[in-house]
Amino acid sequence: MSIQRFEPNGKRLSHVLVHNGIAYVTGQVPADRSQDAAGQTAQVLARIDELLAKAGTDKSRILFAQVWLKHVVADFAAMNKAWEDWIPETALPARATVEANLAAENILVEIAVQAAV
């Protein structure tokens, strides 16, 4: 079975790849890190929309999402509100949300998803 890779990032990773009918979107972080958790989440979700489209799928087909928050107690409600505004009620994936020491101090959220193609 072939693997389709989209948006390779140098020698480290592809931002999305498709294998065996599943699109794997690598962890996405916000471009504008000056925003609060809600704004950063909205940015990340918009980027996920773009990457899923490149892979021939969309958010209605997400199977599983992983969310990492720098400050889960402080930012969970804001992230969750942005998520609820974005995800269709008829397409609720499984999801895990945890607190993590992210790659930079000003990154408040990172999200990765897997979706059926």
UniProtKB/TrEMBL annotation:
SUPFAM superfamilies reported for this sequence: YjgF-like
Domain of life according to the entry: Bacteria
UniProt xrefs under Gene3D superfamilies: RutC-like (3.30.1330.40)
Pfam families: Ribonuc_L-PSP
Name of the protein: RidA family protein
Annotated organism of origin: Metarhizobium album
